[in-house]
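ARCHIVE CARD
Drawer: 12
Card no.: 0347
Subject: one protein chain, sequence and derived structure
Cross-reference: see card 0346
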Amino acid sequence: MLSRIALTVFASLFVGVLGFAQVPTFEPQTIDNRVSIGYGLAIGEVDGDGKPDILLADKTQIVWYRNGDWQRFVMAENLTARDNVAIAARDITGDGKVEVAVGAQWNPGETSDNQKSGAIFYLIRPDDPTQRWEAVSLPHQPTTHRMKWVRLADGKYSLVVVPLHGRGNRNGEGAGVRLLAYLKPDNPRDVWQTVLLDESLNMTHNFDVVPVPGTKSERLVVGGRQGAITLAPRGGQWTPNSTERVPGIGVNRGVGEIRQGRLGSLNFLATIEPMHGNELVVYTLRGQPQRYLLTGGFREGHALAVADLLGLGSDQIVAGWRNPDASGKVGIKLFVPLDKTGSRWQSHVIDDNTMATEDLTVADLDGDQRPDIIAAGRATKNLIIYWNKSKK
């Protein structure tokens, strides 16, 4: 951590490059202090009022919080005997309201039995979204872990689901994880077509969805035990064997969290290594990836987001950890680039020991053009909005 004097010097030196010389300011607001686990967060328009709401996959409930008064509504409850673990929410029809899918039956130790491990549900919206949503069960692999809606070039969307383990794996060894894309039929109660995207990683943890330059489609960047891979649809359709390995990422360590960002014209990947790891790393993606260690002080780093929160024209990194570090604290930090090479970053504490971060995301909740941070805590049992009050 740089001293306050050094921070001032760096800020003065690079204000002309990145256009920001203020200390980032975020004001926390706890909107729920009875979260059970807070496995997964999503942001989306639920009730049609034009304001983004917060959705949460908690231990036994899928819930959403209404923007403004932050009242909590239960969408689904006790879908399976075990915990919920994932949520994907996005407007895939263009009607201004999100479609929602969730993952449940979290049982990472059982990698073979579909009945005992893993579950996927599509939630059908009722006329009144504050009431219970109908849950439609979809086929699944064991250890369902992460899911996101991904846009295809033809304007349609697929639900991509990533298990933690390959089928039958033991201690992270064995078969490759089956990454599947689900194509929603007009009637969601009908059979959903699935496409096998990849099975080259025998253990995964998280993935990111990023635009494909020059197209209207998106691609995946997936982190796993063997490093990182990318996958993209071709001609608006998913096809098998479209995987490309990203060289030099997570070599001999593996990747847990992964997000792609941008520093001017330079793309980078931010990772937490290894899975549930202690290191926050940046890889610049021009030529051979260059690795820069931002910190090695996390304990169970488990949440990562990349966005331009400060209006710099380049992205910053938000990272959280869920177990007490060497100083006995949990929390969230913001990492701000000091130049556009990706080699120098300054860290700022956003949360100091009140958030045992299970998941976090970034969204502009109040429409002030300054993205806010939203985080859910496991041991701390809380859901907090960190309102962005930083001066541009």
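Annotation on reverse: Residues 4-18 form the longest helix (15 residues). Confidence is low (pLDDT under 50) at residues 1-17.
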